[in-house]
Design brief:
alpha+beta, five-stranded antiparallel beta sheet, 16 strands, rod-shaped
Length: 616
C-alpha cells in the first residue's frame, strides 16, 4: 500500500474501495493507516475522517439497496412460482418454504381459518419438529395467531411467553413451548376484507423483527393469498366439472336403466326379469313382494321385508334404509301393490336411490299390467266355468275347445271342489285357491275349483291352506274324478252337497269328499259304493278273521245286537265272558279306541248289516 501524502490520495483510495465493494473494515482502515503514517496534518486527517464516515454510509446504503433488490427478486420469483401452482396443498407448502428462506427463521408455518367454527388450524409448516405444535387449534383472538386472524393486522413479539398483549391459553402455550419457539411474527393472508389465514415466521431465540421484515412477510402473504385463492377457485372449478361429468354419467346411467326396464316390460318381461335387471344396475340383490308380503321374485336368495321400513316408505314416498337393506314401496296412488327390498348396498348414493325408486315405479306398472291380464283371464275362465256348470250338454265340443285355448284339458279326470267361507271377498278367496287349481272361479256365490289328484285329500289340503291364507274357516267339499263337461257338472253338484253336509255336521273349516263322510256320504252321494264303505269301515277286522280264522265280525254283531252287554253276548256266542272281552280288545286294536263312540258305532253297525246282506 502506498503512503498517503495528500487528502486527495486518501479520497481516491476510498472511492476505489467503494467501487470494488470493499468491506466496512477495509474502508475504516484507510483513515487508520493515514493517522499511522503521519503524512497529513490535523485538517487533512479531519477531512479524511469525515470522508471515511461518508464512505461507510454510502456502503450501507448500497448494501440496503442490494438487499431490497434481492428481496424484490425473491418476491418476483415467489409470485412466478405460486402462479404456476394449481394444487392448494402445493401452494401452501411453497409459501411456508419461501417465508422461512426469505426471513432466515427457524420455523415457518401457515394456518387457515374455519369461519363456521370460528377457529384457525395450522395447515402446513416448515422446520417444525413438534407434533403437538403442528396440531394446535386457535380460537379467534387466542394467542398471537388468533389475534392476527381476528384483526387482519400483523403482530410480532420478540419473546412470546413474556408478552402479555396476547391471550395465552394452556394448549397453545404448551405447543409453542414444545416446539421451543420464542420470537414469532404473524401476518394475515387476506383477499380484500376476507382473511383466509395467517402466515408465521418464528425463531427459537429472542429476536426483534424489523419493519422491513414485517413488510417483506406481508408482501409474501399478499402474493400467497392471491395464489391460494386462485388455486382454490381452480380446485372448485375442477370439482364442479367432475361433479358435472358425474351427473351426466349418472343421468345417462339412469336413462339407460329406464330404457332397459321399459324395454323389458314392452317385450313381456316378468317380475324375475325386472328383479335381475335392477340388481344388475344397482349391483345388489333385489327381492319383490306383493301387497300381502308374499314373495314374487328375487335375483338371489330372498331378503326379508321389514314392515316398519315399508310403512315409512309408504308415508314418505321415498326409499327407506334399514341396517342392511333398502325398502321401496310399490304403489299406485295410495294403493299398495307390493314392495322392493335391495340388499348388498348399505351405502346407496342419491342417484342410485332415485334409480331404485324408479324401479319401484316400473314394478308398479308391471303389477298393474299383470293385474289387468289376470282380470281379463279371470273373466274368460269365469265364463267358461259358468257355461261348464250351467249348460254342459249344450255344446260339449265347444267347451272342450275353449278349455284347450286356456291350457285346460276338460276331457282329463278332474277333482271338483266347492269352497265356502262366511264373510270375506269371494274374489280374494278364488285368487288364493288358484295355486291348487287348473280352473277356478266364482259360481252361485261359492268358489269352484277344478284340480288334479284324490278329491278327499285335495279337499283337506285346500281347506287348510285357504284357512291360513284368509284367516277364517274355509269349508271345502269335493267330488270326482270326473271327465268331460257333463261329468264335471254332476261332480260339482255332489261337491256342493258335500259342503252343505260338512256345515250341517258342524265340521266347518274342514275339507272332505263324500267318501270321507262315511255312511252319510254314501247316502248323499250320486255314486254309492257299498263295498267300498264296508271295506273302509270293517276292513282290518275282516282281514284279521280271514287270516286267523277268528270270529271278530260275529262277536261284533252279537255285541251290538244285545245292546252292547257282555253277559248276554257271551250267552249267545256260548263262550266265556273273558273271551268276549279279549275279542273286543282285539277289535279296538284294529279299528281304534274310539270304535264305540256313537258316530263310529253307528257306521260299524251299518257296515255289519251291509256285509251280511252282501254275503246272503
Amino acid at each position: 500500500m502506498t503512503a498517503v501524502t495528500a487528502p486527495s490520495d486518501a479520497l481516491r483510495r476510498l472511492l476505489d474501495l467503494l467501487a470494488s465493494g470493499a468491506s466496512s473494515e477495509q474502508l475504516a482502515h484507510v483513515v487508520v493507516a493515514a493517522r499511522a503514517e503521519g503524512g497529513l496534518d490535523a485538517a487533512g486527517l479531519a477531512a479524511l475522517a469525515g470522508a471515511g464516515e461518508q464512505a461507510l454510509r454510502i456502503r450501507e446504503t448500497l448494501a440496503e439497496h442490494r438487499r431490497r433488490e434481492a428481496q424484490l427478486a425473491a418476491l418476483f420469483d415467489t409470485a412466478s412460482e405460486l402462479a404456476a401452482l394449481s394444487d392448494p396443498d402445493t401452494v401452501l407448502r411453497s409459501i411456508v418454504r419461501r417465508a422461512r428462506a426469505l426471513l432466515g427463521v427457524d420455523v415457518s408455518y401457515l394456518s387457515l381459518n374455519n369461519e363456521a367454527e370460528g377457529k384457525t388450524y395450522i395447515r402446513v409448516s416448515d422446520g417444525s419438529v413438534s407434533a403437538e405444535f403442528q396440531q394446535i387449534v386457535l380460537g379467534m383472538g387466542e394467542g398471537l395467531g388468533g389475534l392476527v386472524a381476528q384483526t387482519a393486522r400483523p403482530y410480532a413479539t420478540a419473546d412470546y411467553f413474556r408478552d402479555d398483549r396476547f391471550k395465552h391459553t394452556r394448549h397453545i402455550d404448551s405447543g409453542v413451548e414444545d416446539e421451543g419457539l420464542t420470537a414469532i411474527l404473524g401476518v394475515p393472508l387476506a383477499i380484500g376484507p376476507k382473511v383466509l389465514g395467517v402466515l408465521f415466521a418464528s425463531d427459537r431465540a429472542t429476536r426483534e423483527f424489523t419493519a422491513d421484515e414485517v413488510a417483506l412477510l406481508s408482501s409474501l402473504a399478499d402474493h400467497a393469498a392471491i395464489a391460494l385463492d386462485s388455486a382454490n377457485l381452480l380446485d372448485q372449478t375442477r370439482r364442479a366439472v367432475a361433479e358435472l361429468n358425474e351427473a351426466n354419467a349418472t343421468m345417462e346411467r339412469a336413462e339407460d336403466a329406464h330404457d332397459r326396464l321399459t324395454d323389458l316390460v314392452l317385450r313381456g318381461g316378468d317380475l324375475p326379469d325386472v328383479a335381475a335387471a335392477v340388481a344388475g344396475v344397482l349391483h345388489g340383490d333385489l327381492t319383490v313382494y306383493d301387497a300381502d308380503g308374499t314373495l314374487l321374485a328375487s335375483s338371489a336368495d330372498p331378503v326379508g321385508l321389514d314392515p316398519d321400513a315399508l310403512a315409512a316408505a309408504r308415508t314418505t314416498g321415498r326409499a327407506v334404509s334399514t341396517k342392511d337393506t333398502w325398502v321401496c314401496a310399490v304403489q299406485a296412488g295410495p294403493e299398495l301393490l307390493g314392495s322392493l327390498v335391495l340388499a348388498g348396498r348399505p351405502g346407496l348414493t342419491d342417484p342410485d336411490r332415485r334409480l331404485f325408486e324408479r324401479a319401484g315405479v316400473v314394478t308398479a306398472l308391471l303389477l298393474m299390467l299383470r293385474r289387468s291380464v289376470v282380470r281379463a283371464e279371470d273373466e274368460v275362465r269365469g265364463e267358461l266355468l259358468t257355461d261348464l256348470l250351467t249348460a254342459p250338454d249344450r255344446n260339449p265340443r265347444a267347451l272342450l275347445a275353449r278349455g284347450r285355448r286356456l291350457g285346460i284339458d276338460l276331457s282329463a279326470p278332474h277333482a271338483v271342489l266347492v269352497a265356502h267361507a262366511d264373510g270375506g271377498s269371494r274374489r280374494r278367496l278364488a285368487s288364493a285357491a288358484a295355486r291348487h287349481a287348473t280352473l277356478v272361479g266364482v259360481h252361485a256365490e261359492e268358489v269352484v275349483l277344478l284340480g288334479t289328484g284324490d278329491p278327499d285329500e285335495l279337499a283337506r289340503r285346500v281347506a287348510a291352506d285357504l284357512g291360513t291364507a284368509t284367516g277364517r274357516p274355509v269349508t271345502v267339499g269335493a267330488a270326482g274324478p270326473a271327465s268331460g263337461p257333463s261329468a264335471i257338472a254332476d261332480a260339482h253338484a255332489e261337491a256342493a252337497r258335500c259342503v252343505r253336509a260338512l256345515l250341517a255336521l258342524g265340521r266347518a273349516g274342514e275339507g272332505a269328499a263324500m267318501a270321507g263322510l262315511g255312511f252319510l256320504g254314501q247316502l248323499l252321494g250320486d255314486r254309492a259304493d257299498l263295498d267300498a264303505f264296508v271295506r273302509q269301515t270293517l276292513g282290518p277286522v275282516l282281514d284279521y278273521d280271514e287270516r286267523r280264522g277268528t270270529e271278530l265280525v260275529a262277536t261284533l254283531r252279537a255285541y251290538f245286537a244285545n245292546g252292547s252287554q257282555l253277559a248276554r253276548t257271551k250267552d249267545v256266542l256260548h263262550v266265556h265272558v273273558n273271551t268276549v272281552v279279549q275279542r273286543l280288545e282285539r277289535v279296538a286294536s284294529l279299528l281304534g279306541e274310539d270304535w264305540q263312540a256313537p258316530d263310529r258305532a253307528l257306521e260299524i253297525q251299518l257296515a255289519l248289516r251291509l256285509h251280511r246282506v252282501r254275503d246272503a
